[in-house]
Amino acid sequence: MRLLPLFPLNIVVYPGEKLNLHIFEPRYRQLVHDCLETDMTFGIPPYIQDSVSLLGTEVRLVGVEKVYDNGEMDIRTRGLRVFRVQEFFRQAPGKLYAAGQVEDIVDDSEEDAVLKTHITEQVRKLYDILGLRKLFLDLPPDYKIYDIAHHLGFNIDQEYQLLEATSEHERQEIVREHLDHILPVLLETERLKDRVRLNGHFKNLTPPNF
């Protein structure tokens, strides 16, 4: 275990994710300054249902985009790995910000090729329905579930469920089940919208031949 500075937020961050943050609280401005001085990392555990989650993602400060006159900052970070909080401290020793004794989660990155093909097709259908075709075209062939997790219509609890999964195969199963469930609903909604649009218009119908 190791002591890791913590920055609880009401979002789920994934390994590899690029995250931009606006820092305004004095305790987290202190955290950013410490990161700049020592090159240390910090963790973002999701703050869900009024409590700090046991799992979080360690991130590294990539850069400070802007410093405002009042000391607030815009920063860029990148997700590294998932950890579990064993003990939470409201303040790190001698600091304003929180910290925790954490252990790293071992993850199996091997994916199921058949599932990958199925999910890719389902994602294409989802983005077509939502008018987000460019998102699909920008998707690299070697994408991982973490790369698309924020663009699947998950709520924060479902996003956290992905964080709990310790293998890519398990994450694939979660996404497959989610997409298999929501796609028929979305397709029916699109058909309903088409019927509503047609209502009141002149209809060119072919009568039955009998």
Automatic annotation (TrEMBL):
InterPro entries: Lon_prtase_N, Lon_prtase_N_sf, PUA-like_sf. Residues 1-183 form the Lon N-terminal domain. It holds the Pfam family LON_substr_bdg. This is Peptidase.
